[in-house]
Amino acid sequence: MKLAFFDTKPYDKPAFDQFAAEAGIKIKYYETKLNEDTVDLAAGADAVCVFVNDTVNAEVIDRLQQLGVRTLALRCAGFNNVDVKHAFGRIHVVRVPAYSPYAVAEHAIALLLTSVRRIHKAYIRTRDFNFSLNGMTGFDLHGKTVGVIGTGRIGRVFIDICRGFGMKVLAYDKYPAADLDNGDTVRYVSLDTLFANADILSLHCPLTEDTYHIINEKTLAACKRGVVLINTSRGALVDAEALLAAIKARQVGAACLDVYEEESDLFFEDNSGHILEDDTLARLISMPNVIVSSHQAFLTEEALSNIAETTVQNLLAMESGQCPNEVCFRGDAAEDCKTGKCF
């Protein structure tokens, strides 16, 4: 099998080289992202592998089909960058539904602790031998209430970590987990209740039509004054302009962002020698109570190995015509394959 691998970074290759060699898959790596202008690079490939910021719209899908590409392998869990409805019946789409939920959940906690304990500021100060503690006062996580939107694998690991700190958890999910709510330290509540009572708000839900800009001017106004927002899921869950306004109004006390809704042309690249054209992101980064990391929550050795192994297994499974990680569009929604054969 020949695989065209788009948006390649140096950290992708070791694990993919290992698992692909064992499976007899030949990989052609491309640093460029997949889009309408680069899709012809997939000529001669049986499958293509893409990441979160590759563009897989109807035009790209049609061209991949014309080139004889049979499978689109996402090396991530989310598929909001793929026109799954258009892909149905044309090209198979497979994903990695879970790699290391610990990687993302632990990064969310790392951002939170860095923010509320001013660790990033301490690092900068002490590098200049400034050992003053003025302006470094944080707050205990113990006893605080965290609102968690999305209680899938990552959300539940994040909840477990929060419980370890002695935090109370208010959770919301369109499809609640039957065994999560204990009626005490973890409770499912409505979004209105969650926003009104959470000291910290963390997003762990997929990006869908229902969750697009779930954090907006209205919902931020409904939050407790000084709320801390964490987003390690998808950038477009948060209306960045509304967040910026809420920070300036002191409604949001701090923001920890690993994703950004207009990140596709910025994140994963070194833009240090360029003027940042995105004024909203520039203003967010300039705020002293905002931490931005460039979509790196997934980036652990364990996660990279899991992603490569699952992606290769998905490709081999599609060769036999049956893959449980195939994304199907049935009715009005996309979901993982339940029948073992989507079309």
Description:
The chain is of the alpha/beta class and 343 residues long. 32% of the residues lie in helices and 17% in strands. It has helices at 13-23, 58-66, 84-87, 101-116, 119-127, 153-164, 191-197, 217-222, 240-248, 279-286, 301-319; strands at 2-5, 26-29, 47-50, 71-74, 92-94, 145-149, 168-172, 186-188, 200-203, 227-231, 252-257, 290-292, 327-330, 333-336. Strands 8-7-6-9-10-11-12 form a seven-stranded parallel beta sheet, with helices on both faces. α1 (13-23) runs parallel beside α11 and α4 crosses α6. It is globular and about 60 Å long. 40% of the residues are buried. The mean pLDDT is 94.
Form type: globular
**How far apart are the termini?**
21 Å
Indicate the percent of residues in helices.
25-40%
Q: Which spans of ≥5 residues are poorly predicted at pLDDT below 50?
A: none
Number of strands: 14
Count of helical stretches: 11
Largest sheet: 7 strands, parallel
Query: Taking Cα atoms only, what radius of gyration do you get, to the nearest Å?
Result: 21 Å
Q: Tell me the structural class.
A: alpha/beta
> How do the strands line up in the largest sheet?
8-7-6-9-10-11-12
Tell me the fraction of residues in β-strands, as a range: 15-25%
**pLDDT averaged residue by residue:** 94
Order of helices and strands: EHEEHEHEHHEHEEHEHEHEHEHEE
